[in-house]
């Protein structure tokens, strides 16, 4: 099996970050190893009084041990990184424990709805720009793409503007951009995949009421699909449809406010990956 490494935080309760990435990557048929950046009792969206333990200082020792055991990984997938120091450590991960030619999938999980997440500032954005420049595939939403390029945020644009944002990111060194939330009308939203060869847009139904962790759900399904052999646009379609399924199911249960109920949808994800990749 293909073994990949995902580096992000672990929220013990709440469907996001590693609690999302592990089962979704596994369902796609790849072996998922983890490098937790922090441990929280719950995620920070709607919970109060949560605990937080920063694991930054543990990361170099973990890398040392992996190197001593000759462990390496076929890809790197990063999610939420809590500090500039953790962004710097991604470079050490890339240099020390990735196989030659292993791709890096970077989700710059730092902003949404026109605003940076609490605790992040312009210095963090500058550090993330440096990391995105080294990405084989960057997975920003519209807000993150605007912060990373210095462009003014618009909730909705047209394909020309979305492609402009992606090409701005690629000018810094990013090889491919997968832009989520690329809506061109009020009824649908979409994913735009831009490479040096061109751009492809996948439009799907828009659901007004979202859920916590859907960015992590999309990114995990996308990475898992690519690592099983799907093309970038096929992976975007698989991940988008899976995320919509999870949101629809979640909205049927008003008491489930803290995340998206993706688990009952994993069978559908497996079917989609099998259909595309002939597993």
Overview of the structural elements:
The chain is α/β, with parallel strands linked by helices. It has helices spanning 17-28, 59-68, 84-96, 122-132, 142-149, 159-170, 214-227, 232-250, 266-277; strands spanning 3-13, 31-42, 52-54, 76-78, 104-106, 111-112, 115-116, 137-138, 177-180, 188-195, 198-205. Strand 10 and strand 11 form a beta hairpin.
Number of DSSP strand runs: 11
Strand content: 15-25%
Instruction: Return Rg in Å.
Output: 17 Å
Given the structure, what is the number of helices?
9
Helical fraction equals: 25-40%
> Could you give the order of strands across the largest sheet?
3-2-1-4-5-8
Report the order of strands and helices.
EHEEHEHEEEHEHHEEEHHH
The general outline is: globular
The largest sheet, given as strand count, sense and whether it forms a barrel, is: 6 strands, mixed
SSE class: alpha/beta
Low-pLDDT parts are none
Mean pLDDT value? 93
């Amino acid at each position: 099996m293909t073994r990949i490494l995902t580096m992000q935080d672990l929220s013990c309760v709440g469907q996001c970050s590693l609690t999302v990435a592990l089962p979704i990557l596994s369902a796609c048929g790849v072996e998922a190893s983890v490098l937790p950046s922090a441990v929280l009792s719950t995620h920070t969206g709607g919970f109060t009084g949560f605990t937080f333990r920063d694991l930054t200082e543990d990361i170099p020792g973990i890398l040392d041990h992996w190197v001593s055991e000759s462990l390496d990984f076929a890809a790197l997938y990063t999610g939420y990184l809590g500090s500039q120091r953790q962004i710097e450590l991604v470079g050490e991960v890339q240099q020390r424990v990735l196989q030659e030619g292993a791709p890096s999938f970077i989700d710059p999980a730092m902003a949404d709805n026109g605003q940076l997440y609490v605790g992040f500032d312009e210095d963090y954005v500058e550090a993330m720009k440096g990391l995105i420049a080294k990405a084989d595939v960057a997975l920003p939403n519209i807000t993150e793409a605007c912060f990373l390029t210095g462009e003014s945020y618009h909730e909705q644009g047209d394909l020309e503007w979305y492609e402009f944002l992606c090409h701005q990111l690629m000018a810094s060194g990013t090889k491919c951009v997968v832009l989520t939330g690329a809506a061109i009308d009020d009824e649908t939203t979409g994913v735009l995949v831009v490479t040096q060869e061109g751009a492809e847009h996948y439009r799907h139904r828009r659901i007004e009421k979202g859920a916590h962790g859907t960015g992590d759900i999309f990114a995990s399904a996308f990475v898992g699909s690519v690592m099983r052999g799907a093309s970038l646009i096929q992976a975007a379609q698989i991940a988008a449809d899976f995320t919509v399924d999870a949101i629809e199911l979640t909205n049927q249960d008003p008491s489930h406010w803290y995340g998206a109920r993706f688990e009952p949808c994993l069978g559908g994800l497996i079917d989609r990956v099998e259909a595309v990749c002939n597993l």
